Amino acid sequence: MQDDVSTGGAETACRAADVVSVLLVVAPDPDHDPEVVERLVRSLRAEIVELNVESVRPGPSGAAPEGAKGSDPVTFGAVVVALSASGGVLSVLVETVRDWLGRHSTRHRVSLTIDGDTIELERASDAERRDLVDAYIRRHTGG
Fold first, then answer.
1. Separation of alpha carbons 120 and 25, rounded Å
2. Cα separation of 102 and 96, whole Å?
3. Which of 4-8, 84-88, 89-93, 109-113 has the lowest mean pLDDT?
4. pLDDT category, 16, cuts 50, 70, 90?
5. Over the stretch 17-52, which tens digit does the pLDDT of each residue have?
6. d(Cα 53, Cα 51) in Å, to the nearest integer?
7. What angle do CA 139, 116, 97 make, to 5 degrees?
8. Interacting residues of 49 by C-beta distance below 8 A, sequence separation 6+
9. Is there a contact between 55 and 6 (Cβ–Cβ < 8 Å)?
């Protein structure tokens, strides 16, 4: 798997001013085996690559989880997603993360950060999550 996946081609450079970078960090359930966590993070990343985003690349690496194999920063759960500031892509990204969390009934948390503003998604009720996510999206899309 490539570390940096660009989906916009030459068109990306033209729209650079309209691109928002989202730092997505998975804080895995501490009871999970590091290899399982790595597979889960890679599956989330693969889902994000399928979205209409400009690029997906490893985020800043931190310390590897104890027992982790390899040095791929994606293993550590940080991914930077560049997406169009308009067109509802942020909503789709957040919904993808929420769906991913819902399919994994453990204590994983995912944080999304845009310009220093962070929201953490975890196993909250659907209504609580919906309200938080809607407010977050409105702050970053002007809607």
1. 9
2. 10
3. 4-8
4. low
5. 588 999 999 888 788 888 888 888 889 999 999 998
6. 6
7. 65
8. 5, 7, 56
9. yes
Hunting for tokens 């982790």 — which residue is that? 68
The 3-class SS string of the chain reads CCCCEECCCCHHHHCHHHEEEEEEEEECCCCCCHHHHHHHHHHHHHHHHCCCCCEEEECCCCCCCCCCCCCCHHHHCEEEEEEECCCCHHHHHHHHHHHHHHHCCCCCEEEEEECCEEEEECCCCHHHHHHHHHHHHHHHHCC
pTM: 0.69
The one-letter amino acid code at 129 reads R
More confident residue, 90 or 65: 90
